[in-house]
Specification:
Strand order of the largest sheet: 1-6-5-2-3-4
Structural class: alpha/beta
CATH topology of the largest domain: Rossmann fold
Oligomer: single chain
Shape: elongated
CATH architecture of the largest domain: 3-Layer(aba) Sandwich
Number of domains: 3
Low-confidence stretches: none
Radius of gyration: 26 Å
Mean pLDDT: 91
Strand content: 5-15%
Distance between the termini: 65 Å
CATH superfamily of the largest domain: HUPs
Helix content: 40-55%
Length: about 425
């Protein structure tokens, strides 16, 4: 069933940064199913949370009866999009691109319905057509429709041209034409009439619209979603410890969950609208009550639950909640071995020790203490816990019973400072 108010819904949620011919596209999708696409270049072996808004937008269109197409940039990924990049990307090998492509396809399959009888999602790879293209034909038939004057006036390119230390190579400069050609091919072969992308993709999207209009005399449309940054202007999803990936092996579900729990208070209700499918009226009501009984903390939890479930599923959400409860409420009785493995991966600081260490030395090696004497003071002042149990024995030596699942000990200083000891068996 086609929803006539989809564009209004996207706009109310803040999911639209810019859209072409808004009234026209609203009329088209009111009674018709369209095909739309979004491209993802495989420049790493996983997508990250910066890709969530385009994926959520595709999902919303599919739920409204439209057909989403995911275009993997097996060809364009070999070049790299220069849009708003301060310096030229490192070129990746064909083999890496192929391996990363397969991993990303598997990831995307979790977010869209590829088995719907009416509007199943489709994955394509632009390598399929660029591998067959002749460069002279491309320059004659496609390149002639683009003005260098216009291309270098785009803000994303202009910034690089003005930099004395980093210009822009012809390789990266050509990216704009390649993405425009993608839109042209998808319109021609799959009747795609709408391209979705981040707001940094506007120049590439408009080039595709221009090419289709010049060659095919057809009207197509573009829609961009916002690029988010934190209060310091750092790109959303980038932290001091690195990017927040969608792959659970690169960013554990626990760390993913905690990322959302620790966002700035000012973003909670905005992000609930952007990243969840909760009704906007319900979110507005929650926002009005945010100062009552720590409601904003509960709503952060609601956000973390919804996004973690969307990306990782119910089972891994429950694991993230178990670990959170264990660390913050000192209840580790229900933790599984896989939960400790998440903490070992990236959840909290981790130190590997052999079987002979005492508590004082462990505190120093875990950096919870600066010296054995400081360790002694913390122990006698009742500040140290082993597996959520207070320990005041200054001469304590770890025992086998402390090694959960035979290899993990949770060492804590106060309520918020933790370190996971991972025991190494002596040969």
């Amino acid at each position: 069933m086609i929803k006539s108010n989809l564009i209004n819904e996207l706009q109310n949620r803040g999911l639209i940064s810019y859209i072409t011919h808004k009234d026209e596209i609203k009329k088209i999708i009111q009674n018709n199913s369209i095909s739309l696409y979004c491209g993802f270049d495989p420049t790493a072996d996983s997508l990250h949370i910066g890709h969530l808004l385009p994926l959520i937008t595709l999902k919303r269109f599919q739920l409204s009866g439209h057909k989403p197409i995911v275009l993997i940039g097996g060809a364009t990924g070999l070049i790299g999009d220069p849009s708003f990049k301060k310096k030229e990307r490192l070129l990746n090998s064909n083999n890496d691109i192929d391996v990363w492509t397969q991993k990303i396809i598997i990831q995307i399959s979790y977010f869209l319905d590829f088995h719907s009888q009416k509007n199943n999602a489709l994955v394509l790879n632009n390598k399929d057509w660029f591998n067959k293209i002749n460069i002279l034909s491309f320059l004659r038939n496609i390149g002639k429709h683009f003005s260098i004057n216009t291309m270098i006036s785009r803000e994303s390119v202009k910034q690089r041209i003005k930099r004395r230390d980093q210009g822009i190579s012809f390789t990266e400069f050509s990216y704009n034409l390649l993405q425009a050609y993608d839109f042209f091919i998808l319109n021609k072969k799959y009747k795609v009439s709408l391209q979705v992308g981040g707001s940094d993709q506007w120049g590439n999207i408009s080039s595709g619209m221009h090419l289709i209009h010049r060659v095919s005399k057809k009207q197509v449309y573009g829609l961009t979603v916002p690029l988010l940054t934190n209060s310091n202007g750092v790109k959303f999803g980038k932290t001091e410890s690195g990017t927040i990936w969608l792959d659970a092996k690169k960013t554990s579900p626990y760390k993913f969950y905690q990322f959302w729990m620790n966002i700035e208070d000012s973003n909670v209700y905005y992000f609930l609208k952007l990243f969840t499918f909760i009704d906007t009226n319900e979110i507005d009501i929650k926002e009005k009550k945010k100062h009552i009984n720590d409601q904003i903390i509960k709503d952060k939890s609601l956000l973390a639950k919804n996004v973690t479930r969307f990306v990782h599923g119910e089972e891994k959400l429950l694991a993230a909640e178990r670990i959170t409860e264990a660390l913050f409420l000192k209840n580790i009785n229900h933790m599984k071995e896989s939960d400790f493995q998440q903490l070992e991966q990236d959840g909290i600081p981790c130190v590997k020790l052999n079987q002979t260490k005492d508590l004082k030395e462990a505190l120093v090696l875990s950096k919870l203490s600066k010296s054995r004497s400081q360790s002694n003071n913390m122990i006698v002042s009742n500040s140290i816990s082993i597996n959520a149990h207070k320990n005041t024995d200054q001469n304590y030596v770890f025992r086998e019973v402390d090694k959960l699942f035979g290899r993990f000990t949770l060492l804590s200083k106060g309520k918020k400072n933790h370190c996971l000891i991972c025991w190494i068996k002596n040969d």
